[in-house]
Design brief:
The complex is a heterodimer of chains A (about 550) and B (about 140).
Chain A lengths: L10 H16 L7 E2 L5 E2 L13 H5 L22 E6 L4 H13 L4 E5 L2 H4 L23 H7 L10 E4 L4 H14 L9 E3 L4 H7 L6 H18 L6 E4 L1 H5 L4 H21 L4 H4 L3 E7 L3 H22 L5 H4 L3 E5 L11 H15 L4 E3 L12 H17 L13 H23 L3 H6 L2 H18 L27 H16 L2 H16 L5 H9 L4 H12 L9
Parallel strand pairs in A: 3-4, 3-10, 4-5, 5-6, 7-8, 8-9, 9-10
Antiparallel strand pairs in A: 1-2
Helix pairs in contact in A: 3-5, 6-21, 10-12, 10-16, 12-14, 12-16, 14-15, 20-21, 20-22
Chain B lengths: L4 E5 L8 H12 L3 E4 L6 H11 L3 E6 L4 H14 L6 E6 L6 H6 L4 E3 L5 H11 L8
Parallel strand pairs in B: 1-2, 1-3, 3-4, 4-5
Helix pairs in contact in B: 2-3
The chains are: A alpha/beta (about 550), B alpha/beta (about 140).
């Protein structure tokens, strides 16, 4: 790693020999090797020799210029800072609606909906598998009626909303569109995001319903529908977040996420779409983990790789197709239940890395999230963390302030090289869908997760308050508690809906959806009809289960 | 003396299986025979697996908040099947207020985020029923 390049036999070697070696004899370094949290080996020092292969115009260029390593906006955050988008949702739609209004009053600039597990898995609140899960990890939204309550008094023409929903994404997206329409908002003007990223579900978070191939069809149907009717909607948020949380290294997060993005573009092209029609609406979602420089390098490398692949592999012609836009969330997995106030500091550092990496939007986790969903006070403090970075730290004054750092640029090049190596392996398997079917990324991630845990056990990696600096007799902190009445209220509301709606119309809409699924037409239209008839998420997802079946993974350890 | 047989199970709708898989490997590396059930198992399926595999311990990984429903059901089914000597341990996001409720059910091994793997291994070795390898 410290090897000298050509023609540089050099002050660097001389320094190693004459300065470093004697210093090491006097006081050895703290470890034999220094690694990032992902296990990447880091050299003692980086110098111009590490950047001999770097060409400024080709590899970096100015912000706003291809390949966008230094950012997609020429003025960085000097024009507008990132969107502070706090992910929230719990209990009933009424409770979450109140939290959203508080977040908007506190200066939040976008909404982000967390749904509960029954909604994410396409089950109604009264389904046997929903027992104990209704409203626990997010808000319960079973039908258009719940979506209307969720956004009551919030003008969807004014704000942008991100919805973390994957397998049933078309159904929840359709509900949002119908609410917007009834508020009088114009579909051609509203904007927001649905996560709609099923590949990372198979790889990491495992909230899938249908097998991979029909799942991919739902996604390309959303691409096509949105290009025609909701042109400003971000139709997919290709997510590394969950891949990282499942235990991937920074490099694996980067590589698998971008390769997932390539797979979606490939499927869109195969479905007959022009890349320039749908690629500009693809956005990304990364994790901001704790190793500061490695994270910044990851975001910069991501932009560069995407620009290359879109231009050269897919022949996209518009600059908008080349620019990778991304949301970031700080690493939930890094939060500790022990000494929870330490989490504020972790989150601040992680958030700073995302900002220095040029994120378009950011969610900062709350200090109590290793224990429960956040309280309102904890969520406000998390938002304040971002506001302090934006207004007090000064890092927003200059675009891509760390560019030119020997270390960071070397790391950015290494991350790019490593990701492209993974691309080659996955391409050789026939793409990401076949790679997932054979369990390749799943195994890679499980391996990294176990290696990390072993390093923690051996104290090769210190986690403050967990395996070092442990405090005895900690006082518990106040946490949010979701009571069981949420489930009763949601089940009661659903019973009422089923009594009051036109059930003949619902049955006809569900039949039409099944029929469309057996054919090849775009499923967004029959889903919108079913939503307008107040069909539930469970009913719509069941209609497709009857046609496509459910996916079951082979459990591996 | 035979090896400890452990079932690691993911009940409920949640798919976050990092913890379950890491623990399954740690138990295996500690010399136990480990069966990982995979995702979305009902309490009935988990207890049936315990019966079939002659398990000494069941580890439930629950991060979704559904523990107050799942744990009592698993304990009740174990009693009904005459398996009340099977040790039950729980790992995941368990709020402070729920810990006594789980303890009342007889679940003493409750491991929250940050629990060292060796503590879980040792807890199982110390508390598992007689007739298997213990410390």
């Amino acid at each position: 790693m410290n090897g000298a390049g050509k023609g540089s036999a050099t002050s660097r070697d001389k320094w190693e020999r004459e300065v470093v070696q004697p210093a090491l004899k006097k006081s050895p370094e703290r470890a034999a090797a220094f690694t990032t949290i992902s296990g990447r080996l880091i050299a003692r020092l980086y110098t111009p020799e590490d950047l001999e292969a770097l060409d400024y115009r080709r590899d970096l260029n100015e912000p706003g210029e291809y390949p966008y390593t230094r950012g997609i906006h020429p003025t960085g955050y000097r024009g507008r800072v990132w969107t502070m988008r706090q992910f929230a949702g719990f209990g009933t739609p009424e409770e979450t609606n109140r939290r959203y209004k508080e977040l908007l009053r506190a200066g939040g600039t976008g909404l982000s909906v967390a749904f509960d597990l029954p909604t994410l898995m396409g089950r109604d609140p009264d389904h046997a598998l929903s027992l104990g899960e209704v409203g626990k990890c997010g808000v319960s939204v079973a039908s258009l009626a719940d979506m209307e309550t969720l956004f009551d008094g919030i003008d969807l023409g004014d704000i942008t909303t991100s919805m973390t929903i994957n397998s049933p994404a078309p159904m929840l997206y359709a509900m949002y569109l119908v609410v917007a329409e009834r508020q009088g908002a114009d579909w051609s003007r509203i904007s927001g995001t649905i996560q709609n990223d099923i590949l990372k579900e198979f790889i990491a978070q495992k909230e899938y319903i249908y097998p991979p191939r029909p799942s991919m069809r739902l996604i390309t149907d959303v691409f096509d529908f949105s290009a025609r009717h909701v042109p400003r909607w971000n139709t997919i948020s290709v997510s590394g977040y969950h891949i990282r949380e499942a235990g991937a290294t920074a490099l694996q997060e980067l590589a698998f996420t971008l390769r997932d993005g390539v797979e979606y573009v490939q499927y869109g092209v195969e479905a007959g779409l022009d890349p320039d029609e749908f690629v500009p609406r693809i956005s990304f979602f990364f994790n901001a983990h704790s190793d500061f420089f490695e994270e910044i390098a990851k975001y910069r490398a991501a932009r560069k790789i995407w620009a290359h692949v879109m231009r050269d592999r897919f022949g996209a012609k518009h600059e908008r197709s080349w620019k990778l836009r991304f949301h970031t969330q700080t690493a939930g997995v890094s939060l500790t239940a022990q000494q929870p106030y330490n989490n504020v500091v972790r989150t601040a550092l992680q958030a700073l890395s995302a900002v220095l990496g040029g994120t378009q939007s950011l969610h900062t986790n709350s200090l109590d999230e290793a224990l429960a969903l956040p309280t309102a006070e904890a969520a406000t403090l998390a938002l304040r963390t971002q506001q302090i970075i934006a207004n007090e730290s000064g890092v927003t004054n200059v675009v891509d302030p760390l560019a030119g750092s020997y270390f960071l640029e070397r790391l950015t090049l290494d991350m790019e090289r490593g990701a492209l190596d993974y691309f080659e392996k996955i391409d050789a398997m026939g793409g990401m869908v076949p790679a997932i079917e054979r369990g390749y990324p799943q195994r890679e991630i499980a391996e990294s997760a176990y290696r990390f845990q072993q390093a923690v056990e051996r104290k090769e990696r210190i986690i403050v308050g967990v395996n070092e600096y442990v405090a005895a007799g900690e006082e518990p902190i106040q946490t949010l508690y979701i009571d069981e009445e949420t489930a009763e209220r949601q089940v009661g509301r659903l019973e009422g809906l089923r009594r009051e709606r036109d059930n003949g119309r619902v049955a006809r809409a569900l039949d039409a959806l099944r029929e469309a699924a057996e054919g090849t037409g775009n499923l967004m239209y029959p889903i919108l009809d079913a939503v307008r008839a107040y069909a539930t998420v469970g009913e719509m997802c069941d209609a497709l289960r009857q046609v496509w079946g459910e996916y079951e993974e082979v459990p591996l350890i | 003396m035979r090896k400890i047989r452990a079932i690691i199970a993911k009940p409920g709708l949640d798919g976050h299986d990092r913890g379950a898989k890491v623990i399954a490997r740690a138990l295996r590396d500690a010399g136990m025979e480990v069966i990982y059930t995979g995702l979305r198992q009902t309490p009935e399926q988990i207890v049936a697996a315990a019966l079939q595999e002659d398990a000494d311990v069941i580890g439930l990984s629950i991060l979704s908040g559904a523990h107050n429903h799942i744990c009592p059901r698993v304990v009740q089914l174990l009693k009904e099947k005459g398996l009340d000597d099977v040790l039950v341990v729980v790992g995941g996001i368990i709020p402070d207020v729920d810990v006594p409720k789980l303890q009342e059910l007889g679940i003493r091994g409750i491991f929250r985020p940050g629990s060292p793997m060796h503590e879980i291994v040792e807890f199982i070795q110390r508390n598992v029923r007689p007739g298997v390898e213990q410390v």
